[in-house]
Design goal:
four-stranded antiparallel β-sheet, Creatine Amidinohydrolase, 476 residues, 2 domains, 12 helices
């Protein structure tokens, strides 16, 4: 239902296929012998010099000079983390499939219908995420070195069937030009606009560079920004898109859980991030973001430290990680305690440090719960943020929640609409997908953030796309 001006011979489906990585580790009697079970705590592949300094629930681990962490230790940590993930059978991948050529066509058809509804003649986009969404060409795929100064534009021009009044599909049309021609006037004088009895109205993507927008305006076009149903055409996800988002986000979360089982004292933030990235790759996903922060490092929500802080029994571990599958993004966050710190019994005496951490963990979880309840059709984006912010403020930590509660997610990890308390004009629609990620950040102490992905489902509770939410600091 659209006429698309796309000057490329790339197959629309060419870059969308991926494959699972084979298992690359082997479990032998030798590695089995390295499992140490002490007081019900499993630490895979490592030997500890264990000292229980008291009869309390606080336990300390110490190393003799010969018990330093070696490269072999690190390799075994990675092997067990990967094996744990692969041994799940990767069920989260079963209902995900790559985007097809037909999917791209259907997207442009929906866009054409939205353009007609907005009384707009064309939608114009240059290589980037939106071009990737409608035409499968990203900026690096078009020009790997840097964005081109020569405009390369895809123009989606709806053509109406005179009988039904509905847009319909036509073959690709290319508007060529010589190097010395003005690209914008060339487009304006092409036969694309034959029969348009007004100044042509072009809607440009939000990623469009300013000099291109000004060039189109100077050539006589009426240029407007992204709005209304045209913006929603990408924000509202199809069943295939939801399937991929569920797979990549559930898989990313499962990788974190399985890796956590293998943690041991002395690991650094950087070492954990490296192993988690490789676990994602082993399951067929490609990591693009991995933030691992311990205690006070996590009081800066997205890090900025050297990654060399060392894991200890009462360390609060914050992991914010994202990967790609079939071009779609995961973006999840968990805050948890290491597996070698035993979960205390109810009413047990806790250290002040641990007691405060557990209190804040619960507050952030409740804030996330309340934000999720607001993810319904026709509620405002602002209301989702405010619901979480009210919980944290009433608990006395309002000034420590320093960012919005969430954002849209799809082929970009961060895309519109954005869930901030100032976004009072955007209404949520069925099919939109969002993060919910409230946090509390106590400078020089620790930070807590929980992040899950949710699908708006009318007036019902939103659908979780991360498998399940955290169950507690010992079960993320």
């Amino acid at each position: 239902m659209s006429k698309s001006l796309l000057n490329t011979h790339r197959d629309l489906g060419a870059s969308m296929h991926g494959s699972r990585h084979p298992r690359n580790s082997r479990f032998t009697p030798r590695t089995l012998g390295q499992l140490v079970v002490t007081v019900g705590l499993l630490a895979a592949g490592y030997r500890y010099l264990w000292r229980q300094y008291s009869h309390s629930l606080d336990r300390s681990f110490a190393y003799s000079d010969s018990d330093v962490i070696t490269n072999e230790n690190r390799q075994e940590f990675q092997q067990y983390a990967i094996r744990n993930l692969l041994d799940t059978g990767l069920p989260f991948l079963e209902n995900a499939s790559p985007i097809t050529v037909q999917d791209f066509q259907e997207r442009r058809d929906r866009l054409a219908e939205a353009l007609v509804a907005e009384d707009t003649d064309d939608f114009v986009v240059e290589p980037g995420y939106t071009f990737k969404y409608y035409g499968n060409v990203s900026q690096p795929e078009w020009e790997a070195r840097e964005p081109e100064e020569r405009p390369f534009l895809m123009v989606v021009h709806p053509v109406l069937d005179r009988t039904t009044g509905m847009p319909f599909t036509e073959e690709l049309q290319i508007v060529p030009r010589e190097e010395h021609w003005d690209p914008y006037s060339t487009h304006q004088q092409s036969d694309v606009f034959l029969g348009v009895n007004r100044v042509p109205c072009l809607m440009v993507d939000e990623e469009m560079r300013d000099f291109i927008q000004r060039g189109l305006s100077s050539a006589g076009f009426y240029v407007i920004g992204l709005r209304g149903r045209v913006g929603e055409a990408r924000q509202i996800k199809t069943a295939r898109e939801v399937g991929i988002l569920r797979a990549v986000n559930t898989g990313t979360m499962e990788a974190v859980r399985q890796m956590r089982k293998c943690l041991y004292p002395g690991l650094t933030e950087n070492e954990i991030a490296t192993v988690l990235d490789n676990a994602l790759r082993a399951a067929g996903m490609e990591p693009f973001l991995d933030i691992v922060l311990f205690d006070e490092d996590a009081s800066n929500p997205h890090g900025g430290t050297d990654g060399e802080k060392v894991l200890e029994p009462e360390t609060f571990v914050l992991i914010d990680v994202g990967g790609h599958l079939y071009g779609y993004s995961s973006d999840i966050c968990r805050t948890f305690l290491p597996p070698f710190l035993e979960k205390p019994l109810k009413d047990a005496s806790l250290s002040p440090n641990l007691e405060e951490k557990l209190k804040v963990w619960d507050i952030v979880f409740e804030a996330q719960t309340q934000s999720i309840h607001r993810m319904k059709e026709n509620l405002t984006a602002a209301s989702v943020d405010i619901a979480a912010r009210n919980v944290i403020t009433e608990a006395g930590y309002g000034e420590t929640f320093t960012h919005r509660v969430g954002h849209g997610i799809g082929i970009k990890a961060h895309e519109s609409p954005y869930l901030s308390k100032g976004n009072t004009n955007t209404l949520l629609k069925t099919g939109m997908t969002f993060t919910s990620e409230p946090g509390i950040y106590l400078v020089n102490k620790f930070g807590v953030r929980h992040e899950d992905i949710l699908l708006v489902q009318g007036n019902e509770e939103p659908q979780l796309l991360t498998g399940r939410r955290a169950l507690g600091p010992w079960d993320p």
